[in-house]
Specification:
Helices cover 43% and strands 14% of the residues. Helix 1 runs parallel beside helix 2, helix 1 crosses helix 8 and helix 4 packs parallel to helix 5. Strand 2, helix 2 and strand 3 form a beta-alpha-beta unit. It has a single domain, classed as NAD(P)-binding Rossmann-like Domain (Rossmann fold). It is globular and about 55 Å long. Strands 3-2-1-4-5-6-7 form a seven-stranded parallel sheet, sandwiched between helices. The chain binds beta-D-glucopyranose. Beta-D-glucopyranose binds next to loops.
Length: 268
């Protein structure tokens, strides 16, 4: 059977751990050559573990260091990848982080750091990807000239006390995604978001590391299970594939029902 992303080149930002690593592995299984981006030298080994697993399973991947919040580094990453592999077909704008603080104690550094990676980083990578998609056009590997998947969060719609920087970044991702989807749909470029709920990764370790914490978290999830990175990886493969060719400018919530306001069950 033909693989869904056969022969396509995918850059997955922040792929050395968590959701990014999960997306990289699922895309490689479907035939994509995956660029496993990692932010700093200290995470190189983690990225290499992801690459090694993909290669051991018969896939293709390389690790690439780039801090997505830095314009010069992002430009260099796209130049290098295009010169090595010929083009980029898929960008997964995944790199993201949290620096939580009560609002009145939040420092400007915490604010800027989160907005810099989660929102500016997605802008910088999307801009370079779209320039490459426009240069290349439709090439027979896909019905689209290129696909971008922005990793958002349920917090693009759910307010989150103590996380103003993070929620603001994801709200920003939502309208950046929709705006550029509107701008580039006529050029056969598809841009969508995935909004994960609580997925078991290092970013939210404190929310599921003990039975008591997990029980508390599950009150927010109607489906009564925490998500796994594969749940997001499979959605990302579908969105990037031609099976989703008519899906453009929307957010797919993969959250076990977290956005269904479970507090209203039997109340209100
Ligand atoms: C956050 C996680 C959180 C989840 C649900 C995600 O975007 O990064 O820390 O568990 O949203 O609240």
């Amino acid at each position: 059977m033909k693989q869904k992303l056969e022969g396509q080149i995918a850059i997955v930002t922040g792929a050395s751990s968590g959701i990014g690593a999960g997306v990289a592995k699922e895309m490689a299984k479907e035939g994509a050559t995956v660029v496993v981006n990692f932010p700093v030298a200290s995470t190189k080994n983690m990225a290499q573990v992801v690459v090694d697993e993909i290669v051991a399973n018969g896939g293709r991947a390389v690790a690439y260091e780039c801090d997505v919040s830095k314009e010069d580094q992002v430009k260099k990453m796209f130049t290098d990848i295009v010169s090595t592999f010929g083009t980029v077909d898929i960008l997964v704008n995944n790199a993201g982080l949290q620096k939580d603080a009560p609002f009145t104690e939040m420092t400007l550094d915490q604010w800027n750091f989160v907005l810099g990676v989660n929102l500016t980083g997605q802008f910088l990578c999307a801009r370079e990807a779209i320039k490459e998609f426009l240069r290349r056009g439709v090439n027979g590997k896909s019905k689209s000239a290129g696909k971008i998947i922005c990793m958002s969060s349920v917090h693009e719609v759910i307010p989150w006390a103590g996380h103003a920087n993070y929620a603001a970044s994801k709200g920003g991702v939502m309208l950046m995604m929709k705006t550029i989807a509107q701008e580039f749909a006529p050029m056969k470029i598809r841009i969508n978001s995935i909004a994960p709920g609580a997925i078991a990764t290092p970013i939210n370790h404190d929310a599921w590391d003990t039975a008591a914490h997990l029980q508390n978290l599950l009150k927010l999830i109607p489906q009564k299970r925490i998500g796994q990175v594969e749940d997001i990886g499979k959605a990302a493969v579908w969105l990037a594939s031609d099976d989703a060719d008519y899906v453009n400018g929307t957010t797919i919530f993969v959250d076990g029902g977290m956005t269904l306001y479970p507090g209203f069950e039997g109340n209100g």
